[in-house]
Amino acid sequence: MPSFWENIRFADESEDVMVSQGMDMATYVSHPAPSEGSSFPAVIVVMEAFGVTRHIEQVCDEYARHGYVAVAPSLYHRDAPNIKLGYDQMPQVQQHMGALQDDQLIEDINKTIDYLQNRYQRTRGNKIGIVGYCVGGRITYLAATSCPGLSAASVYYGGRILVPFGDGPAPIERTSGSTIPVMGNFGEDDANPTPADVAQIEEALKAAGVTYDFKMYSGAGHGFNCNERPDYREDAAADALARTLGWFDQYVKN
């Protein structure tokens, strides 16, 4: 699919000064071919803990093939602009993931929403969905509770939804702020989140009156969607994608 990299700028335009430590946010953008039209709904694809890797680019391309403009912001931009880490580089992954702060993540997703709503011609005036994998699943849940302008969310095995990044409430404690439908795709053999964690998240959504649809995949663990990892499960990945596309077709395309 046609694609390019966009730098989303963090600037106070009234004062012409940079904020958020002055770091632009590199964002991968994949879109349907021009022959398919000029106006499309959007999907924000929130990266795994390894950054906007080749796999995340391919995920964006898949959503573009189904009629969405898909964008993946590089959320480590404050300390490691557009870094891409290997699956065997867990110490570096933990270092960068440990620097994430919920208030800054909310700012990043809001900036991405603004880009799609107001700055990118192909998506202006269209609805926006959000999907995330691994830590991106957690960030997706956080965004569903805290970022206006979204129409639906799909969480893939989002760990640490029960704990905050930095000061402030954990994503699960913000659940009452969600006004959009939330899908969840989880592995029964996952240790983060565990099935017990998923049950707790489901109860929070139910108590808040949020429309949701959770599915637990037998024999699947963390990262089952990534075909470059040993945990990949083709059947679970295919089913979760079909579910998510149906979710977005219902709430984002219409």
Describe the structure.
It contains six helices and ten strands; from the N terminus they run βββββαβααβαββαβα. The protein is α/β, with parallel strands linked by helices. It has an eight-stranded mixed beta sheet, with helices on both faces. The radius of gyration is 17 Å and the shape is globular. The model is unreliable at 13-22 (pLDDT under 50).
Record keyword descriptors for this entry:
single chain, globular, 254 residues, 33% helix, eight-stranded mixed β-sheet, alpha/beta, two-stranded antiparallel sheet
Short description:
The chain has 254 residues and is α/β, with parallel strands linked by helices. It has helices spanning 54-65, 90-98, 102-119, 135-146, 195-208, 234-253, and strands spanning 3-8, 11-12, 17-18, 25-30, 42-46, 69-73, 128-133, 152-156, 182-187, 212-217.
Q: What is this structure's SSE topology?
A:
Elements: E1 3-8, E2 11-12, E3 17-18, E4 25-30, E5 42-46, H1 54-65, E6 69-73, H2 90-98, H3 102-119, E7 128-133, H4 135-146, E8 152-156, E9 182-187, H5 195-208, E10 212-217, H6 234-253
Parallel strand pairs: 5-6, 5-7, 7-8, 8-9, 9-10
Antiparallel strand pairs: 1-4, 2-3, 4-6
Low-confidence stretches: 13-22
Percent of residues in helices comes to: 25-40%
How confident is the prediction overall: mean pLDDT? Answer: 94
Structural class: alpha/beta
Tell me the overall shape. Answer: globular
Q: What is the gyration radius calculated from CA atoms? A: 17 Å
Secondary structure tally: strands: 10
β-strand percent reads 15-25%
Widest beta sheet: strand line-up = 1-4-6-5-7-8-9-10
- Largest sheet entry: 8 strands, mixed
Supply the number of helical segments: 6
Element-level helix/strand string: EEEEEHEHHEHEEHEH
